[in-house]
Structure formats: structure tokens, C-alpha cells
């Protein structure tokens, strides 16, 4: 663990000292950190594997996921579900369940030796939408504004909705160790945890937002204290929920939704600066770890044709078909619907989910999950890194004709 922390610190310091120079050469921070992580893992002969498979690593990954969930929830602009709530709900409550179901069905076909609980874990990992590897998508003006806004709103809620399903799937995937761990038993165990998380997340988010509103009106807060309270919110929701045996991930996500909804501030963007920097730092650490994880997955799990085909379909058909179905009858044109389906990169959230699954699962399933996560994220970096700008240019040409 100590060696891993030293390596992460040195690499992040190196990136910070050369960030502008690297940007000139079109070397993004995720790419730099992935390569550095792979080099460190190779030269230390697999020291990262033992670090990942530990209780401390599981707790660290949980904290990172809680922060990312809160940040995503507060990043949604406009109303509760963004500027176009009906379209957002189409993606979240029609396209997302269809994507999960289609992933599981494809898994039965292409990953036949994998239990269906593990297939649901994999489905949760590959269905996440995260723009951390290709942030330019939501800033590209060639992409229609309403498409960018809808993608941003979807990414804000996507991982929060999937997280309780992911926890249920983890419980189910471990069911072969105990006959009592049936699907109904796993569901009965997950529901009360989720309900507690909903209560505590809402209470903390709304309570802190309303308290901040009152304190600001009375002139009791400073610019620094406004930034600090935003960092305290996900930490408090996550830890309180765990203290009462609740789902900390759901609590952090709901806390972010409630805080964003109830907070009234003229300077909301600056209040999130400290949390954004913290989120960037944690995400950067995940990209570094991912570089080493890619080597671990290559060394310990066999890359089969079934895995390759599954990952390619997960990045294309598994998202594009459900999105097309969900957007039937909407105001979006067919080119815009195709863009919504194509522009769904996978990044840091998928990495954290995959690392949590690797730490929890046993019996060889953890290596399968790790390999699929690595293949999907790397595939997304290349497919969306090069394909997203091309899709935006193609759409711009169709509009000018």
C-alpha cells in the first residue's frame, strides 16, 4: 500500500508540473495517468494487485464513488432533471433498464460460464455514462445544445440509479457461497439498506442546503466556508448511512440531488470549485490505478473472442438500440437520436464499480469482471475519443446541407 501511495503521489506531481506542456501535445490527463500506472505496475511486478484486493482498498474505492455520485448529481443544470425532464426520464427509466437487460442477455450468449448475478454486475459497469475520458463532448458546439444538455443530465443521474442495482447484483453474485443467498434474499436485504439511504441522503442534503441558505442570508458564511460545506455534505451522508447499515452510495447521490435542489446561491459554481478539484484528484488517481489494472487483467484473465465481441456490443448496440427505442415519439430528430446513443463514453465510474466488484467477488468471477471493465473503458477511450468529434462534424455537415 505504501509503495502504491508513493507512486500515485509522484505521478500526480509530475502531471501537475507539465500539464500545459502535455496539453500542447494533445496528451490528456487520463492518457498520461493510464500509461504511468501501467509502467509502474510493470516495473514493480504486480504490487498493485495485492493492494487492490484488500479491505482498505474497498473503503477507498467506496469513498471515491460516493464523491463522484454527489458531484454528478450537483452538475445537472436547470430543473431537477435538467432543462428537458421528459427526455431525461426517457433515457433513465426506459433506455437504461433496456440496456441492462440487453447486456445480461448478451452475456448469457457470449460469456456462457458466467453466473447471471455476475452478468448483472457486468451490465451495471458497462451501462454507466461518464464523460471524464472525453470531456470535450459536452463542450463541442457542433453537437446540438439540447443533445449536450440531455447527455449531461443523464450522466448526472445514471450512476446514482445504477448503484443500488449494482449492490444487489454483488450480493447475488456471491450467492453460490451460501444457499440462503437467493435473489429474493438479496433483494430483501438490499431494500431496507436503500430506504435508509434515501432518508439520510435527503435529510443531510436538504438540511445542509437550507442551513446554508439561512446562514448566508445572515452573513455568517465566508467564500471558503461555502466551499467546505459542499465537501462535508457527501462525506456526512455517506458515513451516516453506513452507520445505520444503509447504502452509502445511494445516500451520497440523493444528498447531491437534494443539496442541488434546495440550495439558493448566486455563486453556486464557485462553491463547487473545491469539490470539483477533489473529484478531479480522485478521478486522476483512478486513471492511474486503471493503468495497472489493465496489466493485471491481461495477466490473470484470458481475453477471448466472446469478451471482445461483448465489449464491442456494449459500447455500441447495447446503448444505441435502447436509446433509439426510448426516444421514439420525442422531439429529437433521428440524427440527434443517433448522437445520443453513440455519445455515451465509459470512464472513472466504471473503473470504480469494477474495482469494487474485483474486491468483493471470488471464484474467478472477479477476473472476468475486471477484464470486461478494462476492455470497455479502453475501447471507449478510443472509440469515443476519435468517434465523438467525427460524429459531431458529420452532424454539422448534415445541418448545413
Report on the structure:
There is one protein chain. The protein has 401 residues and is mainly α. Helix content is 78%, strand content 0%. Helix 4 (55-74) runs parallel beside helix 10 (248-262).
Keywords:
single chain, 401 residues, mainly alpha, Na+/H+ antiporter like fold, 0% strand, globular
Quick description:
It is built from 17 helices and no strands. With 401 residues, the protein is mostly helical. It has one domain (2-17, 28-400): Up-down Bundle (Na+/H+ antiporter like fold), CATH 1.20.1530.
List the helices and strands and how they pair.
Layout: H1 2-24, H2 29-43, H3 47-52, H4 55-74, H5 85-110, H6 116-127, H7 145-173, H8 183-217, H9 223-243, H10 248-262, H11 268-271, H12 273-300, H13 305-315, H14 317-326, H15 334-342, H16 348-360, H17 365-400
CATH architecture: Up-down Bundle
Shape descriptor reads globular
What's the CATH first level? Mainly Alpha
Could you please say which CATH topology applies here?
A: Na+/H+ antiporter like fold
How many independent structural domains? Answer: 1
The largest pleated sheet is described as:
none
Q: Specify the CATH homologous superfamily.
A: Na+/H+ antiporter like domain
Oligomer: single chain
Q: Uncertain segments of ≥5 residues (pLDDT<50)?
A: none
Percentage of β-strand residues:
under 5%
Q: How would you state the average pLDDT, rounded?
A: 84
Order of helices and strands: HHHHHHHHHHHHHHHHH
Please identify the structural class as seen in this structure: mainly alpha
Amino acid at each position: 500500500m505504501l509503495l502504491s501511495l508513493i507512486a500515485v503521489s509522484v505521478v500526480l506531481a509530475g502531471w501537475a508540473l507539465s500539464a500545459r506542456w502535455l496539453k500542447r501535445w494533445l496528451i490528456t490527463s487520463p492518457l498520461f495517468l493510464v500509461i504511468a500506472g501501467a509502467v509502474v505496475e510493470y516495473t514493480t511486478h504486480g504490487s498493485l494487485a495485492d493492494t487492490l484486493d484488500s479491505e482498505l482498498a474497498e473503503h477507498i474505492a467506496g469513498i471515491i464513488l460516493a464523491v463522484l455520485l454527489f458531484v454528478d448529481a450537483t452538475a445537472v443544470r436547470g430543473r431537477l432533471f435538467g432543462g428537458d425532464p421528459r427526455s431525461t426520464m426517457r433515457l433513465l427509466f426506459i433506455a437504461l433498464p433496456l440496456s441492462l437487460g440487453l447486456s445480461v442477455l448478451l452475456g448469457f450468449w457470449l460469456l456462457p460460464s458466467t453466473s447471471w448475478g455476475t452478468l448483472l454486475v457486468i451490465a451495471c459497469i458497462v451501462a454507466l455514462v461518464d464523460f471524464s475520458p472525453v470531456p470535450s463532448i459536452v463542450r463541442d458546439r457542433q453537437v446540438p445544445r439540447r443533445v449536450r444538455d440531455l447527455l449531461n443530465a443523464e450522466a448526472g443521474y445514471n450512476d446514482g440509479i445504477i448503484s443500488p442495482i449494482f449492490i444487489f447484483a454483488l450480493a447475488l453474485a456471491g450467492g453460490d457461497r451460501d444457499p440462503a443467498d437467493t435473489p429474493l434474499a438479496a433483494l430483501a436485504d438490499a431494500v431496507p439498506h436503500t430506504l435508509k439511504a434515501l432518508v439520510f441522503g435527503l435529510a443531510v442534503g436538504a438540511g445542509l442546503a437550507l442551513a446554508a441558505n439561512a446562514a448566508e442570508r445572515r452573513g455568517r458564511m465566508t467564500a471558503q466556508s461555502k466551499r467546505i460545506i459542499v465537501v462535508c455534505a457527501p462525506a456526512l451522508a455517506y458515513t451516516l448511512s453506513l452507520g445505520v447499515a444503509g447504502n452509502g452510495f445511494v445516500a451520497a447521490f440523493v444528498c447531491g440531488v437534494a443539496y442541488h435542489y434546495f440550495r439558493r446561491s448566486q455563486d453556486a459554481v464557485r462553491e463547487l470549485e473545491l469539490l470539483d478539484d477533489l473529484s478531479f484528484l480522485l478521478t486522476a488517481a483512478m486513471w492511474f490505478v486503471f493503468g495497472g489494472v489493465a496489466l493485471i487483467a491481461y495477466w490473470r484473465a484470458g481475453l477471448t473472442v466472446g469478451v471482445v465481441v461483448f465489449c464491442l456490443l456494449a459500447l455500441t448496440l447495447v446503448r444505441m438500440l435502447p436509446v433509439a427505442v426510448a426516444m421514439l415519439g420525442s422531439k429529437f430528430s433521428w440524427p440527434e437520436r443517433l448522437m445520443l446513443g453513440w455519445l455515451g463514453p465509459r470512464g472513472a465510474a466504471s473503473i470504480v464499480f469494477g474495482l469494487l466488484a474485483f474486491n468483493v467477488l471470488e471464484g474467478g468471477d472477479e477476473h472476468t469482471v475486471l477484464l470486461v471493465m478494462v476492455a470497455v473503458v479502453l475501447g471507449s477511450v478510443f472509440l469515443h475519443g476519435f468517434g465523438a468529434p467525427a460524429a459531431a462534424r458529420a452532424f454539422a455537415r448534415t445541418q448545413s446541407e
